[in-house]
Amino acid sequence: DTGVSQDPRHKITKRGQNVTFRCDPISEHNRLYWYRQTLGQGPEFLTYFQNEAQLEKSRLLSDRFSAERPKGSFSTLEIQRTEQGDSAMYLCASSLVRGGRLNQIYNEQFFGPGTRLTVL
Amino acid sequence: DAKTTQPNSMESNEEEPVHLPCNHSTISGTDYIHWYRQLPSQGPEYVIHGLTSNVNNRMASLAIAEDRKSSTLILHRATLRDAAVYYCILRAGNQFYFGTGTSLTVIP
C-alpha cells in the first residue's frame, strides 16, 4: 500500500501526559499537512511542511503542540500535557506541489486514516 | 478565514443525479474551489476542484457560478458507495478551509 499511513490509529491517554503521532506521506510528495477533526466538524488546518520546513501554523496550534518533519520524509506531531479538549481525530495529508512561489501548481491532498486521540 | 456554507444533509435515490450546493460569497479572485468527501471512519478523499470554469472528471462535475459566489457538485448517478460527508472547500494560498459539509444519504 503506497498511501499515507498514520500510527497509531488510536491512542488513549490520561490528562497531563505527552503523546506523539507519526505520519508517513506518499514518498514523492513534498507537502505534508496536519489537521484536527472533532465530531461533527470538518477538518481544521493545524500546520504544513514543504519538505523539511514548517511554513505555516494555525492559531489552533498552541505552545503544547509541536510538529517536525526531519529530512522531509515522515512527520511527527507531539502534544505535551494533554487536555481533554485535545480529544479529536488527527489527520495527516500529503501532496505534490510544483512550480515556483508565484506559479505553484497544486495537486490533490491524499489523507491518511487518522489517529483518534482520547484524553481521559 | 475563507467560509463556505452547505446544507447539513441531503438525500438521493440510488442511480439518480445529485446536486450538492455550496455558497462562498466571500471568495476572492485567487481562491480555488475544492470538493472532498469523507466516508465513515476514513480520511477525506479528493473529488474535484476548479477556479472559474466548469470541470468534469470520472467522479463528478463541478459547476461554478459566473460570479463565483456559489458552486454545485454534481454526481451523475448516485450509488450506495457515494454516501459520505461532502466538503466544499476554498483554498486560500496554502491553507484549506473545510466547513461542516453535507451528509449525503443514498436511498436504495
Question: Would you mind describing this structure in some detail?
Answer:
The complex is a heterodimer of chains A (120) and B (108). Chain A is an all-beta fold and 120 residues long. Chain A has strands spanning 5-7, 10-13, 19-24, 31-37, 44-50, 53-57, 65-68, 75-79, 88-95, 97-98, 105-106, 110-111, 115-119. In chain A, the strands form three sheets. In chain A, strands 2, 4, 5, 6, 9, 12 and 13 form a seven-stranded mixed sheet that branches. In chain A, strands 1-3-8-7 form a four-stranded antiparallel sheet, with no helix packed on it. A two-stranded antiparallel sheet of chain A has the order 10-11. In chain A, strand 5 and strand 6 form a beta hairpin. The radius of gyration of chain A is 14 Å and the shape is globular. Chain B is mainly β and 108 residues long. In chain B, strands 1, 3, 4, 8, 9 and 10 form a six-stranded mixed sheet that branches. In chain B, strands 2-7-6-5 form a four-stranded antiparallel sheet, with no helix packed on it.
